[in-house]
Specification:
This protein is α/β, with parallel strands linked by helices and 280 residues long. It has two domains: 3-75, RRM (RNA recognition motif) domain (Alpha-Beta Plaits), CATH 3.30.70; 127-278, Vaccinia Virus protein VP39 (Rossmann fold, 3-Layer(aba) Sandwich), CATH 3.40.50. 31% of the residues lie in helices and 30% in strands. It has a seven-stranded mixed beta sheet, with helices on both faces. A four-stranded antiparallel beta sheet has the order 2-3-1-4. Helix 6 (176-188) links the parallel strand 9 (168-173) and strand 10. Helix 4 packs parallel to helix 5. The radius of gyration is 19 Å and the shape is globular. The N and C termini lie far apart (40 Å).
């Protein structure tokens, strides 16, 4: 899978750093990093909508109070993996969980530990949304529960669900290499309750899940919410993340129409998590 990295240099940097991320997320960019007064944005080459991107760039060029420069480069699959691993520092979810790589020593492994090798998958725990979901999972009872991890990436959420007592986890991703990575990471963490499935919503086994974990982007969540509503029984839990704080109202409105009740909203920087309960 080939990605394109765009790097933007806005002056002034704030609030344009957040505006850039919000606008690009709307047209399919899936990961962002800030680095020395610049914003890096990543998208799969085959998903890039050039007309939509060019419209954004033209609009920004016509704003008098903004100076915007940018560059881009293609990133081959093997190089994408290297970019993540080069900066993979341990992630600590409060004092409850350490997410580490195989090369981290014992001093980095505090409390509960998940060891992953990210390969080509997203979900190392470094992103704010993965952090939010992991953090929230510790507040909930997963003991003997059936869990669906939608868009599993590296399998971090599936692994944590098993560590918290889930009896079975269906880990689904549209990318075969993500499922391969998930199952390798599951084995690395001595997990036995995770089943990896390649595909989208059509491949979800027809079961009633106690929990659905979906850390994806807003547009995918909107398209898949009706299916989640079908798969959750009354009082089933849905954790949604992968979107910005400004998207909460839109997703909440759709979720309520589908029979969900909002339990809580958590935020980290510009990102959000919604905890929903199936009420009807």
């Amino acid at each position: 899978m080939e990605y394109i990295e765009y790097q933007f240099y806005p002056v002034p940097f704030e609030p344009w750093n957040e505006i850039i991320v919000a606008c690009l997320a709307e047209i399919g960019f899936e990961s962002f990093m800030e680095e020395e007064q610049s914003v890096k944005a990543y998208i799969q080459t085959n998903l890039l909508e050039e007309e939509a991107l060019n419209n954004l760039l033209n609009n920004w060029s016509n704003i008098d109070e903004l100076v915007m420069k940018w560059s881009h480069e293609r990133i081959a699959q093997q190089n994408w993996n290297a970019k993540w691993e080069a900066d993979f520092v341990p992630v600590y979810i409060e004092d409850k969980l350490s997410i580490v790589a195989p090369f981290h020593d014992a001093a980095a492994r505090r409390n509960r530990v998940i060891e992953i090798e990210p390969k080509m998958s997203f979900g190392t725990g470094h992103h704010q949304t993965t952090y939010l979901v992991c953090q929230k999972m510790f507040d909930l009872n997963f003991e003997d529960k059936l869990v669906l991890d939608m868009g599993t990436g590296t399998g971090v959420l599936a692994i944590l669900a098993e560590q918290l007592g889930a009896r079975k986890i269906m880990a689904i991703d549209i990318e075969p290499w993500s499922i391969e990575n998930t199952m390798l990471n599951a084995s690395r963490n001595n997990c036995v309750a995770i089943e990896g499935i390649v595909g989208g919503v059509d491949e979800i086994p027809e079961l009633k899940y106690d929990f659905i974990l979906a850390n994806i982007n807003k547009n995918v969540l909107k398209a898949q919410l009706p299916r989640y509503a079908q798969l959750l029984p009354i009082d089933g839990h849905l954790l949604l993340s992968g979107f910005f704080k400004t998207d909460v109202h839109e997703l909440e409105t759709l979720a309520i129409e589908l029979g969900f009740s909002l339990i809580s909203i958590e935020e980290k920087e510009t990102w959000a998590l919604m905890h929903l309960n199936k009420s009807i």
